[in-house]
Design brief:
Layout lengths: L1 E5 L1 H8 L5 H7 L2 E6 H13 L4 H12 L3 E2 L3 H17 L7
Length: 96
């Protein structure tokens, strides 16, 4: 099975068993992987949304079957510079 690295939105859809259309088709026969960042973001969403015990366990069970790619200084540096470039490409939203 060929691996595919999921971003947080796709991982969330898979966890909820809601991928549709072209996305669902592209994932057929692929082994999902997530990065440590996606793992952290899924955890953050769980905390922000005050998930109950059952929902937390469902996520933990799903994550137990998905390998997590580790990070290191090189990965963190690449992420930081990429996000910085992205953030300067579009004007910041006004919060007035």
């Amino acid at each position: 099975m060929q691996p595919v690295i999921l971003d947080t939105d796709v991982a969330s859809l898979l966890h909820k068993r809601k991928p549709t259309g072209a996305l669902a088709t592209r994932l057929i026969g692929r082994k999902p992987l997530i990065t440590f960042v996606t793992y952290g973001e899924l955890t953050k969403w769980m905390e922000i949304r005050h998930w109950g015990t059952r929902s937390r366990q469902e996520l933990a069970d799903w994550l137990a079957d998905v390998p997590v790619l580790p990070g290191d200084e090189a990965v963190a540096t690449t992420w930081g510079t990429t996000v910085r470039r992205r953030d300067t490409a579009w004007p910041a939203p006004s919060h007035q």
